[in-house]
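worker-3 :: picked JPH1 protein
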Amino acid sequence: TGGRFDFDDGGTYCGGWEDGKAHGHGICTGPKGQGEYAGSWSHGFEVAGGYTWPSGNTYLGYWAQGKRHGLGVETKGRWMYRGEWSHGFKGRYGVRQSLSTPARYEGTWSNGLQDGYGIETYGDGGTYQGQWTGGMRHGYGVRQSVPYGMATVIRSPLRTSLAS
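worker-3 :: tokens ->
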């Protein structure tokens, strides 16, 4: 079955229904200021589809229990992220890149932050290739600056002498 349902808060749903919940394909438009989801539903939850926020930001990909989960693409302002999502956060592996400069990060993520190993390219073309923790460079890595092409090895923790 299917049809249209108008929520008390001003939102609407048009699409398939099963046992009183969105099921199959449908479009849900939230009340003013909340955006729109179009795609597949399973027993009231988003499965695979796209969400567009009033700001113009978008997400196209997989969902689980109302959160981004699995592979997906997010466009947010001047940035785009393509990769894996875990319980609503960027997770495991993905690429975040600027839509207007060469800036990008490709590597592992945890809870929405760079974590593990990755390569970051800066807007000026310089790079950092190495370890990350909680969104910060941490551990071993190599930073290459532009235009000189000089590389620096970064180690953490810093030692003050060879004996320490």
